[in-house]
């Protein structure tokens, strides 16, 4: 894993160039009469390779640029974008945004975020780790992972392939308050999907490793062996009877429950009155020991940032405290629609930490005694308007606190309101491959539809 040397890293020079371009775009917006304006400029590049059965399937190198311009004439808004950074194209894009704004209706909630909310501490958070990875090396790493997986167990009959990706992004957000923010980030990942068994008894599973730095990745052999272990463990699933059971979500599945919570408290859903948690701020929605904290300034955090998509300064803050919904997730537009203040979440949440009150998955399974361990979810059967939840699931049946056998073709169902209240434990076995840091989650009772 060889990062770029300082001499070959031109990211700061590129950010300076993009910052100058952003200022020029804002100048043009003002010259055409815009009362406010904002611009987002970015350059992304990456290398992705895919191999299957030891043979190269795809090699893709990407290089993308984009400029998005939004202007306000009072409370009339217009937006336009381009991938061409040449002066003539930028001028045309600004003119188009202004023309659109002049033909739109005024919106009382439109406009930039409040000027006094702009970030003034524009630190970096150790998110820039470019990798001098060429196609040959990327292919070799993917082939090594697949070979390790296929060799790990004789029951591995086939492969869906291995993939290696490395990418980097530099971006600038600026607005007519005088704010100019520059960010740079990298991402790297190695993944493998395997197939075990034969005929109707075939099972598929995968593993992946990801991080901001190449040093954060597991080795190809580790990725291969974990993918093989997970795939073989799913062979010979057996049915279970339909009923109400405790359900233990493995960490990578537990994230989805937090995701449904975030969707229900996002500003867009709330001002449209399309959320089952409408008007729930200040109310207890989870067990009294349950906490969710947003921490945007973690070193090498996957979503660390000094400011949100509107330049508003980010701060550490509670989302759920002692089971009570402490706040919503708002950008300036949704905040104005609701008569509230922006929470610095334009563009989404930053690093979230869910407090654990239990050990890891094995210990939680022992405490559960008998029930379902979910390691895969299928479908999009979660309704954030009503809270109704119904998703396809697969995983393992637990008896006497130990995994008894794999299960698949199940459906788990309930109401999100009830599921949240029925959470009995959160594990310390956090999956660090996401900006939502949560361990396994045990729900005391859910409907599980299996064998009639």
List keywords for this structure.
alpha+beta; 452 residues; globular; 2 domains; PmbA/TldD fold
Molecular structure report:
This protein has 452 residues and is of the alpha+beta class. It has helices at residues 11-31, 87-102, 135-151, 220-233, 251-264, 267-271, 332-338, 361-368, 416-421, and strands at 36-52, 55-73, 76-82, 156-175, 180-196, 203-211, 243-249, 292-294, 317-321, 324-325, 352-354, 371-378, 388-399, 402-415, 423-426, 436-437, 441-449. The protein has a 6-stranded antiparallel β-sheet. Helix 3 (135-151) packs parallel to helix 4.
CATH class of the largest domain: Alpha Beta
The CATH architecture classification of the largest domain is 2-Layer Sandwich
Broad structural category? alpha+beta
Task: Tell me how many strands there are.
Answer: 17
CATH superfamily of the largest domain: PmbA/TldD superfamily
Write down the CATH topology of the largest domain. Answer: PmbA/TldD fold
Number of domains: 2
Strand content: 25-35%
Name the shape in a single word.
globular
Mean pLDDT: 96
**Largest sheet, order of strands side by side?**
3-2-1-4-5-6
Tell me the number of helical segments per DSSP (H or I, 4 or more residues long): 9
Distance between the termini: 52 Å
> Could you give the order of the helices and strands?
HEEEHHEEEHEHHEEEHEHEEEHEEE
The radius of gyration is 24 Å
């Amino acid at each position: 894993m060889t990062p770029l040397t300082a001499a070959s890293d031109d990211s700061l020079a590129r950010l300076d160039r993009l910052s100058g371009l952003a200022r020029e775009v804002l100048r043009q917006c003002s010259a055409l009469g815009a009362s406010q304006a904002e611009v987002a400029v970015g350059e992304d590049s990456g290398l992705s390779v895919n191999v299957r059965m030891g043979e190269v399937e795809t090699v893709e190198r990407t290089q993308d640029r984009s400029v998005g311009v939004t202007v306000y004439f009072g409370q009339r808004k217009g937006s336009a974008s381009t991938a061409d950074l040449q002066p003539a194209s930028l001028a045309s894009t600004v003119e188009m945004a202004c023309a659109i704004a002049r033909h739109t209706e005024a919106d009382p909630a439109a406009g930039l975020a409040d000027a006094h909310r702009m970030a003034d501490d524009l630190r970096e958070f150790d998110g820039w780790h470019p990798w001098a990875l060429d196609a040959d090396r990327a292919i070799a790493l993917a082939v090594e992972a697949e070979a390790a997986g296929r060799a790990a167990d004789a029951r591995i009959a086939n492969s869906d392939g291995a993939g290696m990706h490395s990418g980097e992004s530099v971006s600038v957000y600026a607005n007519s308050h005088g704010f100019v923010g520059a960010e740079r980030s990298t991402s790297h990942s190695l993944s493998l999907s395997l197939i075990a068994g034969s005929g109707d008894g075939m099972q598929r599973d995968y593993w992946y490793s990801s991080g901001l730095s190449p040093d954060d990745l597991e080795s190809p052999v580790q990725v291969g062996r974990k993918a093989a272990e997970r795939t073989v463990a799913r062979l010979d699933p057996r049915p279970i009877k339909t009923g109400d059971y405790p359900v233990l979500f493995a960490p990578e599945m537990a994230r989805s429950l937090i995701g449904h919570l975030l969707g229900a408290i996002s500003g867009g859903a709330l001002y449209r009155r399309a959320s089952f948690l409408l008007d729930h701020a200040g109310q207890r929605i989870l067990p009294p020991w349950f906490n969710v904290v947003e921490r945007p300034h973690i070193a090498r955090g996957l979503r660390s940032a000094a400011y949100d998509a509107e330049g508003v300064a980010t701060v550490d803050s509670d989302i759920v405290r002692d089971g009570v919904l402490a706040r919503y997730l708002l950008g300036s537009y949704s905040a104005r629609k609701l008569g509230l203040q922006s929470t610095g979440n334009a563009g989404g949440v930053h690093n979230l930490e869910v407090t654990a009150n239990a050990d890891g998955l094995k210990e939680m399974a022992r405490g559960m005694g008998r029930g379902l361990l979910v390691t895969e979810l299928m479908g999009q059967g979660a309704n954030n308007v009503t809270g109704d939840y119904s998703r396809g699931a697969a995983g393992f049946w637990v008896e006497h606190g130990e995994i008894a056998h794999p299960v698949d073709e199940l459906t788990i169902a309930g109401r999100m309101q009830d599921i949240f209240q029925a959470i009995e434990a959160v594990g310390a076995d956090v999956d660090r491959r996401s900006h939502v840091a949560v361990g396994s989650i045990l729900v005391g009772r859910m409907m599980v539809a299996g064998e009639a």
